[in-house]
Amino acid sequence: MDVNDLNYLLDQFKDVSKNKYKSVNVGSNSSYITYLKRSGFNHSIETINASKKLISILTKEGKLIDAFHYPLYPNGTEFALNLTRDKFRAENHLHKCGLNTTKSRVYSYDEVEKAKSEYFIDDINERVVIKPLKSSLGRGVFVNVSKERFNENWKLSKEDLTVTELRHGNDLRFIVQNFLKGFEVRATILQGTLVALIARIPPYVEGNGRNTIQELIVIKNRTRKSCGYLKKYPINITSKIKEFLKSNNLSLDYIPKKNERVLLSSVSNIAGGGELINITDKVSDNIKEFALDVLASIPGLYSGGLDLVLRSFDDPEPHVIEINTFPVISLTKYPTYGKPSNPAKVLVESVIAQHQINNNEDNQYYIENADEYLKNFIDFSKRQLKFIDIAK
């Protein structure tokens, strides 16, 4: 994302007030558990370890309908998990399916000079993306990297990883891929239903003609405290932000003009102080179909989060850059702008509706949107058939 993308998105919502949430529940597991308790659906919770819980959805008589835990939703398979976790393998699969995605090469950490020479051989002004082969939550990801700043960003990518990722990082292999212009969008699909498309905005500040970027960050963090969700994720001045500003010939001491928006990062991550916009009702049907096709192309996957790159709301050639089997659902629940969604309701009621149509049991739950959930699941299953031969 660049500042033109930022302005394009924010100007579309200039007359829309920011959402404020008094109380929030950001954990995906806790969101499902809270919904099950409030909805009255019979369920059980089993603690597997400190960070993992098995959530079981039960009939009124206490019989098991389905159960799930991180990192897979109901109907998900280990094959799908392993495929999507290997970014390079997943990318090759998407190319075979004829779906727009990135073009990457994999290198060991010591091959920095080889990586730079191979990617910048034709055009010194080309920009690239550097990311670890296996990481999460945007750790180690550096976007829009120039040749001049390549070595520094390569080093920072490693430094950004956790101790666990450094230990089990598949020999610390890194991906270098072409930089796609546009803004990032998270498409969340649960049991074949497209829940929402959320534009993810990196941290930024807006100038007043008086304060420096560093001072504007302090001011903005104060305003973020008025939102129960955003206050959990303040903008922290990190080495990644300093590096991004430096690569754009800026510093924390720069004083932006009045109404001038300045990006602090090109990585769209709410945890880094970003914002979210629900653009589901604004994007074209072509983009929605593309998102459904991407997920359908992964064998054994009916639910997931897709990271897309769009140039506009009617982009004729959307691209996918990553697939997640257990997406963070708080992104759809707490958009900064636009209508919040209820992903836990969609998943739970979809699973129950599928079970009840397949098992003619007495004393069934009433699911108001059962027909819609079933249609979406059946349509999605048919969509998967388009890619079945490629998956083999």
UniProtKB/TrEMBL annotation:
Residue ranges constituting the ATP-grasp domain according to the UniProt record: 91-352
PROSITE patterns xref list: ATP_GRASP
KW ATP-binding (keyword) present: yes
GO MF terms, alphabetically ordered: ATP binding; metal ion binding; ribosomal S6-glutamic acid ligase activity
InterPro entries for this protein: ATP-grasp (IPR011761)
Entry-linked PANTHER family: BETA-CITRYLGLUTAMATE SYNTHASE B-RELATED, RIBOSOMAL PROTEIN S6 MODIFICATION PROTEIN
Protein name, UniProt field: Cyanophycin synthetase
Biological source species: Jeotgalicoccus halotolerans
